[in-house]
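FAQ: What does the model actually see?

It sees only this:
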Amino acid sequence: MVATVDDVTERVRSEHLVALGVEACFNYDVPAAIFVPTTSGASARRIALLRLPVWTVAASPSEDTCRRLQLSYGVVALHVPGEPESWSEFARDFVARHSLPGKRVILTGGPSEAKPRANHRLEIVDL
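And it is asked to produce this:
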């Protein structure tokens, strides 16, 4: 049986496309880090599976999620009790505080409990 476009579309979720987009960025540039705001940790673990050469910074309001993420390869779990006013500024500050090399960071995002209708997104943030 030959797979149709509809078959593939049904199996591939938006979260997977974001992870593939992150991986594709590494064909052209190595960012300072990847920032993944997450509630459950699933997005950060999905990106960690790629075994990329930079930190995946998983910011979560859940201490339990941060504890579980400590076991994921290349993930720096940060407990962030409240959402920052700007994730871009949060990422810039983190990179500066840790003196990470690079001219950009990758910031991912998606729906959350607070914003269940938000789009899945991948942003390139210039430092």
